[in-house]
Write a structure and sequence with these properties.
It is built from seven helices and three strands. It is mainly alpha-helical and 150 residues long.
Length: 150
């Protein structure tokens, strides 16, 4: 990219992509097809197709959420307002959540200050995951975890 060439425009609410975009695989295609088959208004179908074109697999995952209104005139805006990001593994997502909360750094500090060996403390991942799933809607699609704010 040269200084004269501006970066591609992104919708205002579109999430940034840290680890690349999730692939649009057969499960994403099935989600899109299933959603389109339920719509009767061509304008609704065009909005779905536009969302797929703009956001790919992430939008296809959004279509699978039980409270997504496929015929909503503002479906793209609703998607961008709720979409957090996609991760290849749930462990990567969990780590980002814990890091975002500052818990990893706080634990490292306490362990360092108190001389606690690394193998003496472990996370209760079942409890952490329950809290995460109480906070976020998560859809696994084509091997990726798509995360939405509730």
């Amino acid at each position: 990219m040269s200084p004269e060439t501006p970066p591609a425009a992104q919708p205002e609410n579109e999430p940034s992509r840290r680890g690349g975009q999730a692939p649009f695989g057969p499960e994403a295609a099935a989600s899109a097809e299933r959603s389109l088959s339920t719509l009767h208004d061509p304008d609704d179908a065009l909005r779905i197709l536009h969302g797929i074109e703009q956001a790919g697999a992430s939008f296809a995952a959004y279509l699978l959420l039980p409270d997504t209104n496929l015929a909503a005139p503002d479906i793209l805006e609703s998607f961008y307002n709720s979409y957090a990001d996609a991760w290849e593994t749930f462990a990567e997502f969990r780590r980002d959540v814990l890091e975002g909360l500052g818990w990893l750094q706080a634990l490292e500090k306490v362990m360092s200050e108190q001389g606690i060996p690394d193998d003496h403390l472990s996370w209760n991942y079942a409890a952490v995951d329950k809290n995460i799933l109480d906070t976020y809607d998560v859809v696994r699609l084509d091997g990726w975890w798509h995360v939405f704010n509730k």
